[in-house]
Amino acid sequence: MKFLHDFALVLLLAAAGCGGNGNAIEPPDDGEPPADGFGLETVVQGLDFPVWLTAPAGDPRLFVVEKGGRVVIVENGSVLPTPFLDLRGQVSTGSEQGLLSLAFHPEYSANGRFFVNLTDPGGDTRVVEYRVSPGDPDRADPGSARVVLTIEQPFSNHNGGLVLFGPDDMLYVGMGDGGSGGDPQGNGQNLGALLGKLLRIDVDGAQPYAVPGDNPFVDTAGARPEVWAYGLRNPWRFSFDRDTGDLYVADVGQNRIEEVNAVEGAGRGLNYGWNVTEGTDCFEPRDGCDRDGLTLPVAEYDHGDGCSVTGGYVYRGNAIPELRGTYLYSDYCSGFVRGFRFANGQAAGERRFSELEPDDHSVSSFGEDAEGELYILTAGGRVHKIVPR
Questions:
Q1: Residue 328 lies in a domain
Q2: Which domain holds residue 211?
Q3: Could you say which of 3, 45, 60, 206 would form a disulfide bridge with 210 (CB–CB 3.0 to 4.6 Å)?
Q4: What dihedral do alpha carbons 175, 258, 9, 53 form, nearest 10°?
Q5: Domain tally for the chain?
Q6: pLDDT tens-digit profile of 185-218?
Q7: Is 2 part of any domain?
Q8: 12: left (phi over 0), alpha (psi -120 to 50) or beta
Q9: Looking at the whole model, is its pTM more than 0.85?
Q10: One-character DSSP codes across 90-135
Q11: Dihedral of alpha carbons 137, 141, 146, 152, sign
Q12: Across the strands, what pairs with 385?
């Protein structure tokens, strides 16, 4: 499976064996990420294609999303026998489709609300709200489902798929350009489309949601007011630095370039370039494209190094102090783990963390628990925790 690129390409690879303004984040004197002092510990294995891991604030449990439609709970190193939520049969799972993420409301401990992003049986994106079952914190109430947002998908790939609450308590929704290849419908640069965008909605302000008044295109004729940023091909994944609020977006390339964007703050109104650019290169047109007004990536690599970027997090846990402030990301095909410090608008001291590369490769996602510790998920069904040696 390859969420961030064309699924067929991944099958071929498997068969073959195969900028915004910066804000310094506690870099050491030389700006370099830390020396090796940590590694991976397998937490669980045998899951069905895990694609997301998260936890409510203050909760020691881990909630793992499986592509096929389940959310399972990992507690004390074991998967609980009954899923927290089971949507198998209610999601399409072909190509890059499936149950793709889960976001707990910032007041989850009081209101029990959470949100999932999935592709429905027709292949369209849905953001759906659920509530935890009264009296059973390990089970969701399937009857509480409320559709918040539905977005038609013209193709089966580039679904984006992440829902995430930002530091402002707004819900951000990452949307790919609609699929196929090359953005044939021109969604990335079309402010009138929800595809190819980072959306920002208020799930507390109205039913099914409200549009925040400070969204950048609320007063732009022809634009969808939900749009927060645009010019994305297939963001997999994005995250906010829990200390600074800075936004990191990993966007999958077409044929040549994978990219990571990092910007100070939440990146209001930014244009990340697709399909004018692929990474920093021109895409349409191939030469002489106009890069004025575009936010270009702070890190990129070509397909000699991998095929599909997997975005991660800035480490803000306490177990490995020397890793704090380092943003980690990976590639689905290569399984490398790289990191950098975001300083002065640039990726400072990027390096490869060979000690964090899982033996099973195929990194499908990173995860973050309630304490800010990080995890690496693989398509083969394993969850690894980044731990000190």
A1: yes
A2: 7-388
A3: 206
A4: -50
A5: 1
A6: 999 999 999 999 999 999 999 999 999 999 999 9
A7: no
A8: alpha
A9: yes
A10: SS--STT-SEEEEEE-TTHHHH-EEEEEEE-TTS-EEEEEEEEETT
A11: positive
A12: 41, 375
